[in-house]
């Protein structure tokens, strides 16, 4: 199919922001725009909602209606849809990078390293990437609808992170290996040995992913409430750029997943109804301040204070419950010892009874 050149202008900051996002997804801007164009052509619509948000009371009603619609669809389903989209984009980026590298290899470059690179990009890695793409499609097929919500999503996140690492590695090689091949002028091909090693490492990483996916499929959701809180916080923090706030949030997420099930029911309710909601608000205010060049440092400090409160609530509640459990167990053991002594089942109890016999 013939290809055409499309040129248009956009704001420089918008372009830089999109380039950064595309790099993180393992895509080029050309690929991203091509995906957009194909979807528009196929569905005859813009593949996302475009609307002006009214201001004032009408704006509040509009936001409420949108929130109700999202809740009716289900937060877990929305989260899974986002994970599916992310995985599919990563798979597409990997396949595209492999194709770009393979088709760019000149026939004039020979040698063992280059032949190995040809084999890796044209056959071995391409076949493994196709297997990963097929596994992702099967994972999110209709027959698995409802099943994934009962799994441990942290394992799926691990799978996604592994795939993202592979995508980033291939994208970086595409941007360095292709120019190196174009600049080669018949000298020694030893300069390509490092790329062969990196591609071989990518192959090994791809081999590890099916085991992670099997672990996800055999998992069961633990800390369902903790997972929902984590998703809420991640959604609120998505536009946030302040690194130390994101690092503190990551630490809080780990604490939530580890300790949530051991918290008292009343503490869980307060976390979900009050504390988390306040953190969501402070994160959104921080994002607004970052975009508007406002008092981002002040908003970030507020976020850290709320994160610290949540961490302390979780830690103290868990400790209190653990101490209560230990005290209850101690009381049970003492009662058991007393009962055994009274029945004469312990030597100490028998001796005590003998001492009470009149001489």
Quick structural gist:
This protein is mainly α. It has helices spanning about 10-25, 30-45, 55-75, 75-105, 110-140, 155-185, 195-215, 225-235, 245-260, 265-290, 295-345, 345-355. It folds into three domains: about 1-45; about 75-215; about 225-345.
Which helices and strands appear, and what pairs or packs with what?
Elements: H1 12-25, H2 29-43, H3 56-73, H4 75-104, H5 112-139, H6 153-183, H7 193-217, H8 224-237, H9 243-259, H10 265-291, H11 296-343, H12 347-355
What is the typical, i.e. mean, pLDDT?
A: 78
Unreliable stretches (pLDDT < 50, length at least 5) are 50-55, 69-73, 349-359
Largest sheet data: none
Helix share, percent: over 70%
Let me know the number of strands: 0
> Helix-strand pattern, N to C?
HHHHHHHHHHHH
Q: For the CA atoms, what is the radius of gyration? A: 29 Å
Number of domains: 3
Give a verbal description of the structure:
With 359 residues, this protein is mainly α. The protein is built from twelve helices and no strands. Helix 4 packs parallel to helix 6 and helix 9 (243-259) packs parallel to helix 11 (296-343). The radius of gyration is 29 Å and the shape is globular. The N and C termini lie far apart (113 Å).
């Amino acid at each position: 199919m013939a290809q055409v050149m499309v040129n248009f202008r956009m704001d420089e900051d918008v372009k830089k922001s999109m380039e950064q996002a595309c790099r993180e997804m393992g895509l080029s801007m050309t690929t991203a725009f091509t995906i957009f164009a194909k979807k528009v052509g196929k569905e005859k619509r813009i593949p996302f909602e475009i609307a002006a948000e009214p201001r004032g009371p009408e704006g509040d009603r509009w936001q409420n209606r949108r929130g109700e619609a999202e809740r009716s669809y289900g937060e877990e389903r929305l989260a899974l849809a986002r994970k599916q989209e992310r995985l599919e984009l990563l798979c597409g980026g990997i396949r595209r990078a492999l194709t770009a590298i393979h088709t760019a290899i000149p026939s004039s470059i020979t040698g063992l390293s280059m032949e190995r690179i040809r084999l890796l990009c044209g056959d071995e890695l391409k076949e493994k990437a196709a297997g990963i793409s097929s596994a992702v499609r099967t994972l999110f097929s209709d027959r698995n609808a409802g099943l994934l919500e009962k799994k441990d999503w942290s394992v799926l996140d691990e799978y996604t992170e592994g795939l993202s690492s592979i995508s980033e590695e291939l994208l970086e090689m595409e941007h360095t290996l292709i120019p190196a091949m174009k600049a080669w002028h018949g000298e020694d091909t030893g300069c390509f040995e490092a790329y062969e090693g990196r591609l071989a490492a990518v192959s090994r990483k791809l081999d590890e992913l099916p085991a992670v996916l099997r672990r996800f499929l055999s998992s069961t959701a633990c800390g369902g409430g903790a997972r929902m809180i984590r998703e809420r916080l991640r959604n609120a923090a998505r536009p946030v750029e302040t690194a130390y706030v994101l690092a503190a949030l990551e630490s809080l997420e780990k604490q939530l997943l580890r300790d949530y099930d051991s918290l008292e029911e009343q503490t869980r309710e307060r976390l979900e109804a009050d504390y988390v909601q306040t953190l969501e608000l402070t994160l959104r205010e921080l994002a607004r301040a970052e975009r508007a060049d406002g008092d981002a440092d002040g908003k970030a400090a507020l976020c850290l204070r709320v994160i610290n409160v949540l961490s302390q609530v979780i830690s103290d509640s868990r400790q209190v419950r653990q101490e209560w459990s230990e005290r209850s167990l101690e009381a049970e053991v003492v009662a058991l010892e007393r009962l055994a002594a009274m029945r004469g089942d312990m030597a100490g109890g028998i001796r005590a009874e003998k001492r009470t016999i009149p001489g």
